[in-house]
Amino acid sequence: MNIQMTGIDHRTAGIEVRERFAFTKAQAAKAMEYVKMQPDVNGCILLSTCNRMELWASLRDGVDGNLREMIAAQKQADLSDLAPYFTDRRAAEAVTHLFYLTAGLKSQVFCEDQILSQVGDALKNAREIYCTDSFLEVLFRRAVTAAKEVKTTVPAMHGDVSAAHCAIGGMKQKGYDFTGKQCLVIGNGQMGKIAAQALQEEGAAVTVTVRQYKSGRVEIPKNCGRIHYGERYAFLPRCDVIVSATASPNLTIQKEPLAQARGGGCRQQILIDLAVPRDISKEVSSLDGVFLYDMDDFATDEESTAWRECKQEAGHLLQQRIQEFWDWQECRQIVPRIQRIGRGTAKEVCWRMGGKLSAFSATEREQIKDMAAQSAEKSVNRLLFALRDHMGREELEHCMDLLEACFTDTKFTDTKFRY
């Protein structure tokens, strides 16, 4: 097994760096196809979210993937001054990281729910363009399954936690009351819908934008108003809070159009940018009465005693599932050896039967040898799989070494035998 990953996240890189390495779904597909074409790469998966970018690769044994260079090639970036922001992980460290990440234990918003679906989507996207391999497939599926188990069995990790909730909570800590406020949410994807629902729960009146070409069929949260995206500037003057959370590479709010829409006597406005790359121009913060926040403004490293206990409980469960993954990996490595020993034993049986079948025709001799070989191989395989399930790892390794020396000898590899 040679599993490697490289990436950046909110712990090592601010939003200015993270947005430089953000990938849309189409960009991620192009990048994965590029990586998959590289020599010695068996499979790859690219995870790109608001808080992180990670490239995962399964490589031929003994190969250094140079994953940073592959990312740099896709983003046309000079890594000479960006190296401190990247983290590389391999083997056991990488596997443990993925399980904890998927469960929400490494997120900027502790125990967030979105990362679970984002990891699952990353696997799905790689699978659809034939870029993953069997090892990454099992690794990511097991990480998602373990995260779902954590979410359902660890009491403190129940509920819907997201960057939108964190932003609203941060504003409330600053003394802001959303009750009765007029709010506009730009973006009707998953994050936009979560933000709209969270604002409604705080007592705000919420309107969401929809694109003109699909406004007739798009679903919006219940009790929310809707306007066409192109009408957003005309609607802004009546808003107290504007939240932007799109996947668009273009800015949704810029300084000059906002200034014109506000005129000379507009109310105080809170703008919250939940997108990476960011949706709202930084220049809007220079306008009087406009207060701009992005998701890093609400980050905190503080953990309550309850969260630490929650993390510890989740960690115990995750360690069990990680060990089960390694057990699978060991089985994956031992199965080919068992099969080789079975085939070697079958060949020896056929070799030893050679002189005793002279009374039969050539066709009959081949049929008898085939049946004997199949029976011998199945019996040996059954015995060895039973040993695998009941012996310690070191004992099993020693046993396999001895059997391979006995039953994979070249004198039994006559090409006339198919087993």
Give the key terms.
419 residues, alpha/beta, four-stranded antiparallel β-sheet, disordered C terminus, six-stranded parallel β-sheet, 13 helices
Explain what the structure shows.
The protein is an alpha/beta fold. Helix content is 48%, strand content 13%. The chain is built from 13 helices and ten strands. It has helices at residues 15-18, 25-36, 67-75, 91-102, 114-128, 134-153, 163-173, 190-201, 232-235, 255-262, 305-353, 362-390, 393-407; strands spanning 3-9, 41-48, 52-59, 87-90, 182-186, 205-210, 225-228, 241-244, 269-273, 290-294. It has a six-stranded parallel β-sheet, with helices on one face. It has a four-stranded antiparallel β-sheet with strand order 2-3-1-4, sandwiched between helices. Helix 8 (190-201) links the parallel strand 5 and strand 6. The longest helix has 49 residues, at 305-353.
**How far from one another are the termini?**
28 Å
Q: Could you give the order of the helices and strands?
A: EHHEEHEHHHHEHEEHEHEEHHH
Low-confidence stretches: 410-419
Instruction: Give the structural class.
Output: alpha/beta
Secondary structure tally: strands: 10
Strand content: 5-15%
What gross morphology would you assign? elongated
Rg estimate, integer Å? 29 Å
Integer average pLDDT: 86
Helix content: 40-55%
Strand order of the largest sheet: 7-6-5-8-9-10
Report the total helices. 13
How would a textbook summarize the main sheet? 6 strands, parallel
Which secondary structure elements does this structure contain, and how are they paired or packed?
Blueprint: E1 3-9, H1 15-18, H2 25-36, E2 41-48, E3 52-59, H3 67-75, E4 87-90, H4 91-102, H5 114-128, H6 134-153, H7 163-173, E5 182-186, H8 190-201, E6 205-210, E7 225-228, H9 232-235, E8 241-244, H10 255-262, E9 269-273, E10 290-294, H11 305-353, H12 362-390, H13 393-407
Parallel strand pairs: 5-6, 5-8, 6-7, 8-9, 9-10
Antiparallel strand pairs: 1-3, 1-4, 2-3
Helix pairs in contact: 4-6, 4-11, 5-6, 6-11, 7-8, 11-12, 11-13
